[in-house]
Amino acid sequence: MKHLLASTCLVVGLMAMTGAARAECGNVTIASMNWQSAEVLAALDKFILSEGYGCNAEVIVGDTVPTITSMTEKGDPDLAPEGWVDLLPDVVNRGIEEGKLVGAAVALSDGAVQGWWIPKYIADAHPDIKTIDDVFKHPELFPDPEDKSKGAVHNGPQGWGGTVVTSQLYKAYGGEAANFTLVDTGSAAGLDGSIAKAYERKEGWVGYYWAPTALLGKYEMVKLEHGVPYDEAEWKRCNTVADCPDPKKNDWPKDKVQTLVTKKFSERAGEDVMGYLNKRAWTNDTVNKLMAWMTDNQASGDDGAKHFLEENEAMWKEWVSPEAAEKIKAAL
């Protein structure tokens, strides 16, 4: 009887501790943006916060501007795992200065990357090609699909900011004089298809792309260097302005992708939860490969999160407490 009472007390005590942990963290709303990398990161945070720390976590649909603006003005949602803070720096800075937002981990540790890329097999075969200027010396290695006597730079569809910048860099680096054409791929699918076709045929390809993306997880590409330092004033004056007539050579800045938390949630979440959110970060290479797996397997964000946890235990255990790690492993 004494053993039964002791066991009962132990169970009740553990239940009370679990309830206290859940109460401390409480309800948490997590914004899942409408692209794959943000979807899987939101799902990952939900799983870890729910299973590891006893939070009552819920994922809601969000997008960069409305979500971060709402967090600043209304204090909701509680968490934006993948905040592209460079898209609205004034809102983010004001939110932090006014004590409404807290910046947690830089979610993408090596930054979101845009630029011009070439296939790795081309880079390996021609180690002298490292910059845009180097590419423009070799139109024969990057043939235009419509005119093999010329090289081609593949651009994104109209309406993308990256398409404008690529057009301006094409002018700044003298693409036309180097016997290159600027190819309008027409759509995201057209751009992806041009890379896939080049890879299947082991042909040369150069053009605009970005990371993290599933495609760069599937096809190994090398980003070209620009050969000059980043000039912010010139970037704003001309590199990002479609009708600017005299663009200069410039580097392409990385976008800072940071986890944002409302101040009120950071104060009630507890040290362990905030400790996790301040540590949880991954690289483009990790995310590219995960998204490639998701695309190949038609997997949801939840599926991707579980796959990541199953395949990368050494990585995520660095983010969480030992107690949380055991709970997360048990829940998989």
Fold and architecture overview:
There is one protein chain. The protein is α+β, with helices and mostly antiparallel strands and 332 residues long. The chain folds into 2 domains: 23-110 and 256-331, D-Maltodextrin-Binding Protein, domain 2; 113-239, Glycine betaine-binding periplasmic protein, domain 2 (D-Maltodextrin-Binding Protein, domain 2, 3-Layer(aba) Sandwich). It is built from 16 helices and 11 strands. The chain has helices at residues 2-25, 36-53, 64-74, 89-97, 120-125, 132-135, 161-172, 188-201, 214-218, 232-239, 263-269, 271-279, 284-296, 301-311, 313-316, 322-331, and strands at 27-32, 56-61, 79-84, 101-103, 113-119, 143-144, 147-155, 180-184, 207-211, 221-223, 257-262. The chain has a 3-stranded antiparallel beta sheet. Strand 6 (143-144) and strand 7 form a beta hairpin.
Quick structural gist:
Keywords: Signal. The protein has 332 residues and is an alpha+beta fold.
Q: What secondary-structure arrangement, pairings included, does this model have?
A:
Layout: H1 2-25, E1 27-32, H2 36-53, E2 56-61, H3 64-74, E3 79-84, H4 89-97, E4 101-103, E5 113-119, H5 120-125, H6 132-135, E6 143-144, E7 147-155, H7 161-172, E8 180-184, H8 188-201, E9 207-211, H9 214-218, E10 221-223, H10 232-239, E11 257-262, H11 263-269, H12 271-279, H13 284-296, H14 301-311, H15 313-316, H16 322-331
Parallel strand pairs: 1-2, 7-8
Antiparallel strand pairs: 3-11, 4-11, 5-9, 5-10, 6-7
Helix pairs in contact: 2-14, 2-16, 3-4, 13-14
